[in-house]
Amino acid sequence: xxxxxxxxxxxxxxxxxxxxxxxxxxxxxxxxxxxxxxxxxxxxxxxxxxxxxxxxxxxxxxxxxxxxxxxxxxxxxxxxxxxxxxxxxxxxxxxxxxxxxxxxxxxxxxxxxxxxxxxxxxxxxxxxxxxxxxxxxxxxxxxxxxxxxxxxxxxxxxxxxxxxxxxxxxxxxxxxxxxxxxxxxxxxxxxxxxxxxxxxxxxxxxxxxxxxxxxxxxxxxxxxxxxxxxxxxxxxxxxxxxxxxxxxxxxxxxxxxxxxxxxxxxxxxxxxxxxx
Length: 276
Fold this sequence. Notes:
By secondary structure, the protein is mainly alpha-helical. It has 9 helices and 2 strands; from the N terminus they run H-H-H-H-H-H-E-E-H-H-H.
């Protein structure tokens, strides 16, 4: 409570931008203000990626201002405030969630495959059954013709009806679709966003999926984390740092400790600061 009171008093006396260092504007809004989205400063806000999808994160409660982002990039404290580490940590959580969904999708498809194909027929056995059905169908057609010539129309129609049933059974074995019915499509799980899609689907539908918000959103998250990890790895090897793990791989405790150190180094001694 005492710290909050001190902070409020200094806000009133010196303004919210009292921590601005020499060379930075101290009037008006500042990129370090609490109501500015720090994720947006780092590159993009995840709340904007999945609008009106089943993974919609809702509207971001903080402001997005391109001028603030440019000011942050030009600031001497760019990449020293711990914003990027917080951003990577949040993106990693989103990626872990979609990876779980991808695993569940594969498990679901495996279960459905077992249910739909409990005892698959071997190729040779299937071929023999198809040949037997074909012979039976030909015999029935010949029998129906003979009955028709003898004037036994009702019996001929009954034989032809049986013939149609055998033809359908044969078409099922051959993998053909029944006339008037849609053949079951094989599904697969998208390894980027976890959505189900038809395997070997039409190019137009594939393009629609690849250009969808969910797919593009998770692809953007993966690209950012990959680039950040590569940059962090290069930086670690260049300066001989012992901890070569990327922020994506490090534990939350390690990330929190690094953020505190980064924030401590970023504070200019000439600036008046208030403990948070």
